[in-house]
Amino acid sequence: xxxxxxxxxxxxxxxxxxxxxxxxxxxxxxxxxxxxxxxxxxxxxxxxxxxxxxxxxxxxxxxxxxxxxxxxxxxxxxxxxxxxxxxxxxxxxxxxxxxxxxxxxxxxxxxxxxxxxxxxxxxxxxxxxxxxxxxxxxxxxxxxxxxxxxxxxxxxxxxxxxxxxxxxxxxxxxxxxxxxxxxxxxxxxxxxxxxxxxxxxxxxxxxxxxxxxxxxxxxxxxxxxxxxxxxxxxxxxxxxxxxxxxxxx
Length: 249
Fold this sequence. Notes:
By secondary structure, this protein is α/β, with parallel strands linked by helices. The chain is 32% helix and 19% strand. It has helices spanning 43-54, 74-88, 103-111, 129-137, 139-148, 167-170, 176-179, 206-214, 235-242, and strands spanning 17-19, 28-33, 58-61, 95-101, 119-123, 151-155, 160-164, 192-198, 220-225.
């Protein structure tokens, strides 16, 4: 179960961040999904947590390294996302926003089929993960990882290399969006989606988001930024773009 912490301040040492919202008939609720080998206290999560805290809006950023980083899969992460959504208790009177960064952007996109009424904000979303990882690591490294069932990756949250099971890759096959290649086939997103992607992104090429946006004209909008994968320099612009969407109609 996702643990919630209801404080008047943000405690970045906790595995899940939440800011409490004043009681209103209509409320804004936000779920933030961090990226691969990251955590709920990442720079982007902290930035958006502060912005929503200033507006007294509910913000939740669960730890997606579950049950731990080694055993983590998309399936285990999606389970946490669904539990978090249940605990947010967003109903028809609420405006729900789902933010997803990199791998979290892929998770958010998968959730769209289940929660199409939400608004999705994707930050350098990790489309084409199966193809990108094969290209990134190479066939020999993938085969070695599969044989040994363990490979080290730099983990931004722990500050050290952490082992990850090959089950993470095997699990891609259980999720259509994880195996689809936006360069060769159309990826359809059912919900209103805003995509922010750096033109100089060397982790997830911007062309991935360009193709997805082209396949979802009328429902999605792509902002190509002069930034890299982390999008740290672009955070003020992203907030300025998203903030007007928070107005309760």
